[in-house]
Amino acid sequence: MPLVNVMVNQRAYTIACDDGEEEHLRDLASHVDSKVRELLGSVGQVGDTRLLLMAALLIADEHFESLARLDTRSRELSDLSAAHNVVQSRFGSAETSAVSVLEAATKRLSDIAARLSPA
């Protein structure tokens, strides 16, 4: 299990991760560090523990907002899919009706042509 050194709030942390996850862990730590730096700009140095907790809460808030947007989009997609099915069904019905009308018109034209043609 590899050990990865990351920096958060100018402090080094060594964290173990699964093979192949090193870069992902660095990216996550970088994201946490950016939230901590963002907080430092607005609330100042309030201690590592409080800064990390506040950063975690901001990230959790973003996560829950993303889940809510994903749920909304999922419902919208489901509604669109249902509407698509209704349109497809109506199109099928319209197509069937159009075929029937054309077949009837063709029959009438054939009957008229038969009556007009010399015997």
List the helices and strands and how they pair.
Blueprint: E1 3-8, E2 11-16, H1 22-43, H2 48-116
Antiparallel strand pairs: 1-2
What is the chain-wise order of helices and strands? EEHH
First-residue to last-residue Cα separation: 96 Å
Helix percent reads: over 70%
- Portion of residues in beta strands equals 5-15%
Oligomer: single chain
CA-based gyration radius: 33 Å
By helix and strand content, what is the structural category? mainly alpha
Calculate the mean pLDDT score and round it. 92
Spatial order of strands in the largest sheet = 1-2
Domains counted in the coordinates: how many? 1
**Uncertain segments of ≥5 residues (pLDDT<50)?**
none
Tally of helical runs = 2
The count of strands amounts to: 2
Give a short account of the largest sheet: 2 strands, antiparallel
* Shape type: rod-shaped
Question: How would you explain this protein's 3D organization?
Answer:
This protein has 119 residues and is mostly helical. The protein has one domain. The chain contains two helices and two strands. A hairpin with a 2-residue loop joins β1 and β2. α1 packs across α2. The longest helix is centred in the C-terminal third of the chain and has 69 residues. The termini are far apart. The mean pLDDT is 92.
Quick take:
It is built from two helices and two strands; from the N terminus they run ββαα. By secondary structure, it is mainly alpha-helical. The radius of gyration is 33 Å and the shape is rod-shaped.
